[in-house]
Design a protein that fits this description.
By secondary structure, the protein is mainly α. The protein is 90% helix and 0% strand. It has a single domain, classed as MetI-like fold (Orthogonal Bundle), CATH 1.10.3720.10. Helix 3 (46-84) runs antiparallel to helix 5. InterPro entries: ArtM/GltK/GlnP/TcyL/YhdX-like (IPR043429), MetI-like (IPR000515), MetI-like_sf (IPR035906).
Amino acid sequence: MLGQFSTAVVGLTLVQSAYTAEIIRGGFLGVDHGQYEAAAALGLPAWRRTLRIILPQALRTILPSGFNEIISLAKGTAMVYVLAMPELFYTIQMIYNRTQEVIPLLMVGAAWYLAITSVLSAIQYLVERAWRAASAARR
């Protein structure tokens, strides 16, 4: 049998891989079929067509959804820790039973999640802005 940690990792991996596959699939389906035909007409090998022509256009739709999925994963791991790994929750209970201060512990936990999601959102914003600038420069 799998332990609690292994079960949590397998569960998150299966769920996130399905969502990520759909995001990537949607990104490639969002590229106009004429782009594929034009790239093939240039006589480029398939790997170069994908890397130089199709992928940059697909990334325009993949990046925002992909970063949102990463942020969602960061939030989802919090639920896994509470639901699948009671030892963490038990440790928190031990600390606030000793100190009798529940609110500061909850505030610290909330601050950590706010910091993590804020950093991920800032990275997403910077990547999208750089991608937009590079895309505009190519036109």
